[in-house]
């Protein structure tokens, strides 16, 4: 009898070992509160990284650095607006938009992917990733809700996105483990559970009911009540803390919303992002970050470091937390810097992971830092006034009798909107409603700037003087400084109502698209060639020499590179406020007079051997960067921030 019992037990043991389903899969085991990867218990240490903030030729380098930390996964949000620029366009999936290639490159480097499909992702990105053109849809009554018109647009987007993801799922032997819907939804306060269920069902419809879905919310009861769903894994956002018991309490609350859930901090926010005009410093000591990670890991929690590499918000893609726009640099004190260097925090995190007994994904060798250089100073000359440049390239315009058109109406999603009309008399100009900054010109001469809201500044009136005894050109250029990314889509941009002089409504407006693109080279090559021809045909050297360099203008110059290009930083100290393009690339906004960011990262991919065209679009007037006859563009090999 004893021998028979031993035989039966052996059979059970053999069955347990050889009968286990080890086929590719990713599942929840609510009995043991664990993830199962291919049938085995699994914990992840991930790093959040944004493909849309990194030139695609640098993806492999940055992902190698993430893997060298000892991480086994990355967290990746997908911004809808980055892929679908216009409602009637097919989404973009090549170059910097090639999400599939990014995920496959991560897999090649030994990293699984945790995907955040939104549609709202936050990420300090314009409108939280929601397209500007949704604002044009008058049928939408409420965003981020079960509103039928809004969900119809989301459904169409998911029809494009999710079939790209399906072959990459773990169950299909791919690297994508699980999918997040929405982001910090509980904090919004709408509590539309039908909306969350609609999103979950859409994902399951395209990817299968066996795909693990999850939500992310702050560990606060009312937020998690609004942001979670039955049968969808609830996870939490945490921050570094040295208060005993806090981390344990956070995970206890998370698990209270799903019986048998593994502990997951899907967003471990270790560093703040930077904003124009605000003193943001590194809030958390490295030791507190590491101790919090250790505490979470000791509780068998999976964690994702936000951010591990921030990168750069090129173009006009930055978000805002009113009254502060997010800076072009998204360095965010991350362990992998904007230019790819590793720092002390990186070394500390890597050292902790090296000390974890039996960790199956030990750190790999750290890649050498990429070469950087400080190119010689470039002399810039005035090409034209800002308004002269805009009109010179024949922008697309809409004429209206009374009210100027909003940016969304004229299909101008990002950057600037140009308005002009004629006036006979000067006086106090009053623009009741506009967004975000308005630059006022009389006969192409700069009058001053208005700010809807910046820091403590709010002004919507300005005294306009100097009218000639004739019709005078009144021009207003409105900058879209970045739609708020925090929680709810904002109103439209540009001028949003009537404009008054002496309390009299100004009429006969032109509302025009400003031709400064926010897109990559492959999308604007035709526009760029048109711009080059315009410069060659219209450059007036005599006029340029006599131009007033301190006025808002377009400045141009050439950087000559004799060998292979290297990464660099453009030093904007001495300039006012504007945007810089190099060759076809919009390298981002600068606001050196406000800070804290003083330099713009220029990746080598944006440069080439030979002549490189630099254009400063200066909207408030340069200061020490200019003499009476010319201005300078200086380069450095290090980033500069002033606080």
Automatic annotation (TrEMBL):
This is Glycoside hydrolase 35 catalytic domain-containing protein. Residues 1-19 form the signal peptide. The lineage of its organism: Eukaryota, Metazoa, Ecdysozoa, Nematoda, Chromadorea. One of its GO terms (molecular function) is beta-galactosidase activity. Residues 554-612 form the Beta-galactosidase galactose-binding domain. Pfam families: BetaGal_ABD_1, BetaGal_gal-bd, Glyco_hydro_35. Residues 404-511 form the Beta-galactosidase 1-like first all-beta domain. Keywords: Glycoprotein, Glycosidase, Hydrolase, Signal. PANTHER family: BETA-GALACTOSIDASE RELATED. Belongs to the glycosyl hydrolase 35 family. The keyword Transmembrane does not apply. Residues 34-353 form the Glycoside hydrolase 35 catalytic domain. GO terms for biological process: carbohydrate metabolic process.
């Amino acid at each position: 009898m004893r021998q028979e019992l031993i035989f039966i037990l052996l059979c059970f043991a053999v069955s347990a070992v050889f009968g286990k389903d080890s086929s590719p899969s990713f599942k929840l085991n609510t009995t043991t509160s664990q993830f199962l990867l291919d049938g085995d218990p699994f914990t992840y240490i991930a790093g959040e990284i944004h493909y849309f903030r990194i030139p695609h030729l640098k993806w492999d380098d940055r992902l190698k650095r993430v893997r060298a930390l000892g991480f086994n996964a990355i967290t990746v949000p997908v911004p809808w607006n980055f892929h679908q620029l216009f409602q009637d366009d097919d989404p973009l999936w090549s170059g910097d938009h090639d999400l599939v290639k990014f995920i496959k490159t991560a897999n090649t480097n030994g990293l699984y992917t945790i995907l955040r499909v939104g549609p709202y992702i936050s990420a300090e990105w314009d409108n939280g990733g929601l397209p500007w053109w949704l604002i044009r849809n008058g049928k939408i009554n409420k965003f981020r809700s079960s509103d039928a018109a809004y969900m119809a647009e989301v459904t169409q987007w998911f029809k494009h996105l999710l079939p790209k993801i399906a072959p990459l799922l773990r169950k299909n032997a791919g690297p994508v483990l699980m999918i997040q819907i929405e982001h910090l939804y509980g904090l919004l306060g709408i509590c539309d559970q039908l909306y969350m269920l609609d999103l979950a069902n859409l994902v399951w419809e395209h990817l299968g009911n066996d795909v693990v879905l999850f939500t992310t919310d702050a560990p606060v009861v009312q937020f998690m009540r609004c942001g979670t769903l039955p049968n969808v894994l609830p996870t939490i956002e945490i921050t570094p803390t040295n208060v005993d018991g806090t981390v344990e309490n956070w995970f206890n609350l998370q698990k209270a919303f799903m019986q048998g859930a593994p502990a997951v901090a899907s967003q471990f926010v270790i560093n703040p992002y930077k904003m124009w005009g605000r003193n943001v410093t590194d809030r958390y000591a490295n030791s507190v970050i590491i101790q919090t990670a250790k505490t979470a890991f000791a509780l068998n929690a999976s964690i994702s470091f936000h951010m591990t590499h921030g990168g750069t918000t090129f173009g006009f893609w930055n978000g805002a937390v009113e009254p502060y726009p997010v800076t072009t640099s998204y360095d965010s004190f991350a362990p992998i810097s904007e230019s790819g260097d590793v720092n002390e925090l990186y070394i500390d995190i890597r050292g902790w992971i090296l000390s974890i007994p039996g960790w199956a994904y030990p750190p790999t060798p750290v890649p050498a830092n990429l070469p950087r250089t400080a190119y010689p100073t470039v002399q810039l000359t005035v090409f034209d006034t800002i308004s002269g440049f805009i009109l010179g390239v024949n922008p697309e315009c809409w004429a209206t009798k009374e009210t100027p058109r909003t940016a969304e109406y004229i299909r101008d999603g990002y950057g600037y909107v140009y308005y002009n009309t004629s006036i006979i008399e000067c006086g106090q100009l009053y623009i009741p409603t506009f967004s975000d900054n308005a630059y006022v010109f009389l006969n192409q001469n700069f009058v001053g700037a208005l700010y809807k809201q910046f820091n403590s500044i709010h002004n919507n009136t300005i005294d306009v003087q100097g009218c000639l005894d004739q019709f005078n050109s009144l021009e207003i250029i409105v900058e879209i400084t970045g739609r708020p990314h925090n929680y709810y889509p904002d109103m439209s941009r540009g001028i949003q109502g009537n404009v008054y002089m002496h309390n009299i409504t100004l009429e006969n407006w032109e509302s025009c698209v400003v031709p400064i693109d926010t897109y990559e080279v492959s999308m604007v090559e035709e526009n760029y060639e048109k711009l080059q021809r315009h410069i060659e045909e219209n450059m007036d050297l005599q006029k340029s020499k006599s131009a007033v360099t301190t006025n808002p203008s377009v400045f141009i110059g050439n950087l000559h590179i004799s060998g292979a290009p290297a990464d660099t930083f453009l030093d904007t100290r001495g300039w006012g406020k504007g945007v810089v393009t190099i060759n076809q690339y919009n390298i981002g906004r600068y606001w050196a007079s406000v800070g804290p960011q003083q330099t713009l990262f220029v990746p080598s991919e944006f440069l080439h051997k030979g002549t490189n065209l630099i254009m400063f679009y200066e909207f408030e007037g340069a200061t020490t960067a200019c003499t009476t006859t010319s201005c300078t563009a200086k380069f450095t090999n290090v980033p500069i921030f002033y606080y």
